[in-house]
Amino acid sequence: MASTTKIITSPAPDTQIKPIHTYTDEQCELIGSLREYTDSLLLPSDDPYYPWEHRWVNRPDTIPRYMRAAKWKFDDAKKRIKGTLEWRRDFKPDLIPPDEVKIESETGKIILNGFDVDGRPILYMRPGHENTERSPRQVRHLVWWLERARDFMPPGQESLVIIVDYKTTTLRTNPSISVARKVLNILQQHYVETLGRALVVNLPYLLNFFYKGISPFLDPVTRDKMRFNPDLLELVPKEQLDADFGGEYGFEFDAESYWQQVVSHCGIAPDGTRIQKDDSGPASASPIEESMTLELPTENVTPDGSGTLVDAAIQETKLEPHIETPVHLSTVN
């Protein structure tokens, strides 16, 4: 099997990204109402973080995800999205400078590479590769990767797969239950409906207590998406699955090459913003995000005209895969 340092940035041949969700008229109205409520909470337009907050709210899947997570209970959805807006203003997950967290990636303990059979980007986590002491930067590093996973999502896809590999993990390298709780809170509260699957492999008996310790903090939806020691070849195309897990993708991790490819593909500037065509004004939409803009039937357009809020009209999409070398995106919003 030939080895390569090149990353995979699109799904396997003939991957079908099917319409994920369809909504009733009543649900469309709730989505529109939640958007109106969210708009009322936005920062003033002259606030430095306003362009980034507005960008996040305007993603086609943001408002629908919060309504679904709240099981269509409007007051709960309002509470959830208000909490996330406050968290994002404080944490600024979309503006984390690459160099702030780069040291955390030197051993490949978190690797974003490849896609599952449904076109979800795969985030590999290897606790046994831990290389730093416990600190807030470790959490920011994980959040940086959650943001990059969203950058990798093909049009029509809005969730990711996490594969946690416990091979070589020890009690020293395994994250503490308190850190795991913090990460779970961020994932479950501020990246709602983003986890497609959580697959745990090579879990030693010694660490069973860890999952017993965090189990009370797993919401039922997250718990239902977890699988232990599954057959990964049933879930990931063999040409997309790392050879370490039985696949045919001979990825060879080179820290600097890997990091530069991801940063370049996602168009991340040194200060955490996005690469622009010029210096005039905020960055415009990237080719990735432009392709996510949805054309909706007029009857599904919300009262404020923000038809892209409802992703019911996503058409089944065939994606041609490729393994690409570093290429700068000229514009990313």
Automatic annotation (TrEMBL):
PANTHER family: GH16843P (PTHR45824)
InterPro entries per the UniProt record, alphabetical: CRAL-TRIO_dom (IPR001251), CRAL-TRIO_dom_sf (IPR036865), CRAL/TRIO_N_dom_sf (IPR036273), PI_Transfer_CRAL-TRIO (IPR052578)
CRAL-TRIO domain: residues covered: 100-253
Gene Ontology MF, one: phosphatidylinositol transfer activity
SMART domains: SEC14
Name of this chain's protein: CRAL-TRIO domain-containing protein
SUPFAM superfamilies per the UniProt record, alphabetical: CRAL/TRIO domain, CRAL/TRIO N-terminal domain
